[in-house]
Amino acid sequence: MSEFTKTPGWLDWYAGPSQPRFQVPEGAVDAHCHVFGPGAEFPYAPERKYTPCDASKAQLYALRDHLGFARNVVVQATCHGADNRAMVDALVHSGGKARGVATVRRSVTDEELQAMHDAGVRGVRFNFVKRLVDFTPKDELLEIAGRIAKLGWHVVIYFEAVDLPELWDFFTALPTTVVVDHMGRPDVSKPVDGPEFELFLKFMREHPNVWSKVSCPERLSVAGPKALDGEQAAYRDVVPFARKVVEEFPDRVLWGTDWPHPNLKDHMPDDGLLVDFIPHIATTPELQRQLLVDNPMRLYWPEEVKG
Ligand SMILES: O=C(O)c1cc(C(=O)O)oc(=O)c1
């Protein structure tokens, strides 16, 4: 029994997701998902901002198989702070089918970084979303970035669109590939060709080392409809934003379920219907293959990519 009590109002992941109508290409990678605990085995961090339901590696890999994916990238969830044991445990029990993104502090040793590398970690996450983490000084993050660059890792950044101007100089100084979570959380009630999203596109245009996950329509959508009850046109207000990024930067985009969808307040999506969102944003088999196979393989399993 876990001694943890979930944050009030917590929504658990959707049990019994539907079978997607969209068949993902062979070898597809779910490049953004998490494990939570289980808390009794891998306790949540004292400094966490939320306490989730448990979401184990076995449940994650069952979802992978159900949706038709071949591999996962497991991103350290903030409820585990810089204790990467649950994520690393998921990687080492994946049979080589999962890679990971860790959260580390400057106190991490080279031996610990190497052990994580051996387990399949290929990146660190810097989080600037204030409801999720306490502030970390930029000099500490730059020091970490310099160290992990030597391992060939990349930096994943999570921030809100309104904070991009202030973070621009820091982001553009990072010495690695930089992967933006959830398109930098655009406000999709604003125009897709308005100044806020244009700044994000400019960030990607001017910096060829910047990639984006075109994930989390369930988080970004304002007008819906929700991916529930067989809805095949879910989150249509997010489509123009994600489609724009996929079409302009087809070789620098990734997609992930974001399972088990931390901190959703309004509803929990049916992950099968979330997969059916993909062909609305990557509209040709070629774009779908780049998004789901070629790009994540190049970033996370480069040794398996020929030529
Ligand atoms: O928006 C969020 O609440 C959220 C949280 C986390 C995390 O807690 O790690 O990860 C995500 O990708 C998104």
TrEMBL record:
The UniProt record lists the keyword DNA damage: no
Domain Amidohydrolase-related: 29-300
Keyword terms: Aromatic hydrocarbons catabolism, Hydrolase
Enzyme's top EC category: hydrolase
Catalytic activity field: 2-oxo-2H-pyran-4,6-dicarboxylate + H2O = (1E)-4-oxobut-1-ene-1,2,4-tricarboxylate + H(+)
GO terms of biological process kind: 3,4-dihydroxybenzoate catabolic process
A UniProt-annotated Pfam family: Amidohydro_2
Database matches in InterPro entries: Amidohydro-rel (IPR006680), Aro_Compnd_Degr_Hydrolases (IPR052358), GLI/LigI (IPR047874), Metal_Hydrolase (IPR032466)
Top-rank lineage group of the source organism: Bacteria
GO MF annotations in UniProt: 2-pyrone-4,6-dicarboxylate lactonase activity
E.C. number(s) listed in UniProt: 3.1.1.57
PANTHER family recorded: BARREL METAL-DEPENDENT HYDROLASE, PUTATIVE (AFU_ORTHOLOGUE AFUA_1G16240)-RELATED
Family named by the database record: Belongs to the metallo-dependent hydrolases superfamily. PDC hydrolase family.
Name this protein carries in UniProt: 2-pyrone-4,6-dicarboxylate lactonase
